[in-house]
Amino acid sequence: MLLASYxxxxxxxxxxxxxxxxxxxxxxxxxxxxxxxxxWQGIGLAGGLSMIGAFLCWGLAPLDKGLIPAxxxxxxxxxxxxxxxxxxxxxxxxxxxxxxxxxxLLLTLGRSAWRLARDRQRHREMLAFLSKPEAGPGTAVIxxxxxxxxxxxGAGNLTVLSSGLLRSLDERELRAVLAHEAAHLDQRHDLxxxxxxxxxxxxxxxxxxxxxxxxxxxxxxELADDAALRVSSREDLLGALAVVALAGQAEAPGALPGxxxxxxxxxxxxxxxxxxxxxxxxxxxxxxxxxxxEALSSRRLGRLLAPDAPLGPWPRRAAGTSAVALxxxxxxxxAAAGWDVF
Length: 342
Hints:
Elements: H1 2-16, H2 18-25, H3 33-60, H4 67-80, H5 89-130, E1 139-142, E2 148-152, E3 158-162, H6 163-168, H7 171-186, H8 189-202, H9 207-229, H10 234-244, E4 260-263, H11 276-286, H12 298-305, H13 313-338
Parallel strand pairs: 1-3
Antiparallel strand pairs: 2-3, 2-4
Helix pairs in contact: 1-3, 1-13, 3-5, 3-9, 3-13, 5-8, 7-9, 7-10, 8-9, 11-12
């Protein structure tokens, strides 16, 4: 079990710094956002499992049993209030860290989910009073001059639009916006963002969590863009984003609780035919790294203005296989430790 703890610790170190840093700096995820998203999930799951498993295996190693029998001995000793021979203060500290880390991650996830559900419920109640009754099913229109579009996932998915947005976009641009928001709802991007937001909240001192949240927040927008491009032209989507995602000197994004969206001021939004440099400068100024709402980053804008060729099938399969392998590897180490293989 001691060897398993060392292997898990080494894997945890790799997934805590060099691997996510290299992935965050890579350019290929924009060419294949779905495999990149899967890879980030694998890094998060494998990293947490490796950290907890390393402390657990190392703490139980002196019992000289498999992980499962040793855990049974530990539980029996705790319930019977008896001493455990061979477990000194250092090993007990490692076991305490494993329990605290696992509990902290689960509690943070539960607390984040509860707060988000509460905010969304309050948001829905507010929309019931503010939205126009003539809005179609699954859509709410609020009377506000600021161009605004966002989605509200959960029970009864809802897409919220402002009257200012409806006046600013033509029919084709509006179709692109609706397709973009529908992709967020259909693909349940809110759950992905919830997981990585909770991970960052639980371990804010770990740079990996910030990099992962920032990358995932951008990838979900790219996935939604790809869905919109299947029903709309690139020019229509860019024209809509110029109105919806560039805020200029308007409110900061995410002002409404529980939603996923971005507001923009008409007076400060560049025209759709403005130079790409002006759009990129405005995008950089109003992107909030790592925040779970709409943001037009330079990478996302460049991807729409000058798209690269999609990643080939073999690299996509390699990314997906790597994500699965990352989760399987610590699981195998723990299984081997469970039966005292090494």
